[in-house]
Amino acid sequence: MCGISGIIRWQGPPVDRREIERMTRAVEHRGPDGEGICVREGVALGHRRLAIIDPKGGHQPMSNQDESVWITYNGELYNYIELRDELIQKGHEFLTNSDTEVVVHAYDEWGPGCLAKFRGMFAFGLADFKNRKVLLARDHFGIKPLYYRVGKHYLAFASELAALREVDDATPTGNLEAVELYLRYQYIPTPHTIYREIFKLPPASYFWVSLDGMISEPVRFWDVTFEEDNSRSDRQWENAAEEIIHDSVKAHLVADVPFGVFLSGGIDSSLVALEMSRIMDRPVKAFAIGFNEKEYSEIAYAEKVARQCGIELNAEVVRDDSLAFLPELVAHYGEPFGDSSAIPTWYVSRLAREQVPMVLSGDGGDEAFGGYASYDYWLKTDPLLQAREQMWTAPRASFYWARQALRKSLSTGSRNDLAEWQSIMTYVKEQHRRALWRPQYQKLIEHESELFMAADQKARASSRLSYAQYLDYQTYLPCDILTKVDVASMYHGLEVRTPLIDVRVVELAARLPLTQRIRRNGSETTIRKSLLKRVLGKTFTPEFVHRKKQGFSIPRDKWFLPGQSARKQLEQLLDDPNSRLYEFFNPKVIHEQLSLHRDSYDNSDMLWLFLVLGIWLQQNQSVQFN
């Protein structure tokens, strides 16, 4: 795992080596094991290396044999050995055992078609000097980030926003539309960033930059498709899930360095840890974070998994006075990022890095197998599901009418609606945003996210649950979950691998019938992630498997009470009459929202977003918005 940077200049002064050195230095924490620079024909590539595979032979930027292709690459390919063997049979010769060289030769053989063959996580810039163009690409799910900045005579790219502030150009312009989206979703959706001139490449996408300055539109090379397969029995689905998860965990363990696992004690991380314990011939090192507030801490469940699986557990308790480092973390994300679970992710990453440079995590299980509590709403409002239940539970006399209702539901569709989804999932509701923004900025509220609209158009005809899962795959997973983990872990130079966010696992999960994702247990109880719970239930007790979902979050509601650390930090920001928050927002309304928060009224979602935004604005005084 690494930090990458690069720049293509097609007019004006040539690329200055000092420029790419500054950009690369800005991501050095992502790769403490080495640095490399290549400057040639208006292209500069920079690389910081975290050596996981072939530590001695995988130095970058790397080229093919005739040096017509050069790459700076961040990622891991879990099928690189199979691809390497295939390429050798086609006549390619290899000088190293690294997966990076496989990417170079795969491009030589298949061009951008190689991307669909990759199984793993990646973001890279590949300079093809023979054809005078640069390929920029990002993996299927957006596990690894790729930002790019477009200037008058250049395009620059990097793993983090901070590197793009080092380009020889003026400070990029702030984007208030992005701030509006941040208040809705707690992150800024792709392709936008906090800067107007800087963008995020969407997952499963690539685009070209010619050395003459032509920039193509992003091209999508893969997408998840939900198609229910009703041909298998419960036992067959359980066997298939066990086999594919075991295979994925095993593939994700390919490394030449020590590794461990994040173990929250939840369903997904417990399943990954269990599979690791079955595969490895030595005790698994696991890392967990808890809180003094017992209702937020799952350490007891992590301890149970560790005892049962023979795992070596390392745990740490996070207290509210641990937020002193928050300004540093905010700066590290590069733009306002409001998911407060970045805090425990930062701590567990630090804990793990003390012993290993790489870990596995259970991220992605909720999106793939239907685990989020928000999915309950989509089931309760699914006319097709309701009609099915009415048909099978109807008395004989009314069976005909229930069957007619089912046919009608099949013909009318699921009636998915983006506005409905946003009304449920938005963090700061529209009426509050209207009160918060100053009058001259009210039009920002009318701005829509292109990412959400595109996902809605693609999935609108799907079942209610598949619709919600698809939206999460396109929005919440890459823009929130994976961004959170990438930045918090790479802050410490720790690689995190996600075996449940794997092409083969996701393609299997996308074929699951509804009853394998979510089941009814009686008339009231919903069993989310039904298939995974049945698989895990072969090893753990029903009480462990079917307990209420905890989630990985901090006690924000407690930490914003009077006298607590989060409230003190926000009060300090608001007490400054020159706070940049007041440039855009109504001071009276912000203070009112803070005063509303108490034990009986949890307003911490909004308060946390303003705390992070206020810190970021304070740190970036030179950024001007329009």
Write up this protein.
This protein has 28 helices and 19 strands. The protein is an alpha+beta fold. It has three domains: 2-220, Glutamine Phosphoribosylpyrophosphate, subunit 1, domain 1; 234-370 and 471-545, HUPs (Rossmann fold, 3-Layer(aba) Sandwich); 556-619, no CATH class. It is globular and about 70 Å long. The relative contact order is 0.12. Mean pLDDT is 90; it is low at 405-413.
CATH topology of the largest domain: Glutamine Phosphoribosylpyrophosphate, subunit 1, domain 1
Tell me the fraction of residues in β-strands, as a range: 15-25%
State the low-pLDDT regions, or none. 405-413
The overall number of domains is 3
- Count of β-strands: 19
> Biggest sheet, strands in spatial order?
2-3-1-9-8-10
SSE-based structural type: alpha+beta
Distance between the termini: 36 Å
The global form is: globular
Helix share, percent? 40-55%
The fourth-level CATH homologous superfamily of the largest domain is: Aminohydrolase, N-terminal nucleophile (Ntn) domain
Query: What integer is the average pLDDT?
Result: 90
The main β sheet shows up as: 6 strands, antiparallel
Number of helices: 28
Regarding CATH, which class of the largest domain? Alpha Beta
Radius of gyration: 25 Å
CATH architecture of the largest domain: 4-Layer Sandwich
Summarize the structure in short.
The chain is of the alpha+beta class.
Draw up the topology in text.
Layout: E1 2-9, H1 17-25, E2 34-40, E3 43-49, E4 62-63, E5 69-77, H2 80-89, H3 99-110, E6 120-128, E7 133-138, E8 147-150, E9 154-158, H4 161-164, H5 176-185, E10 198-200, E11 205-210, E12 219-220, H6 234-252, E13 259-262, H7 267-279, E14 285-291, H8 299-309, E15 312-318, H9 326-333, H10 342-353, E16 358-360, H11 365-369, H12 375-380, H13 383-393, H14 399-412, H15 418-425, H16 430-436, H17 450-459, H18 464-474, H19 476-490, E17 495-497, H20 503-509, H21 514-517, E18 518-521, E19 525-528, H22 530-536, H23 542-545, H24 556-559, H25 565-574, H26 581-584, H27 587-596, H28 604-619
Parallel strand pairs: 13-14, 13-16, 14-15, 16-17
Antiparallel strand pairs: 1-3, 1-9, 2-3, 4-5, 5-6, 6-7, 7-11, 8-9, 8-10, 11-12, 18-19
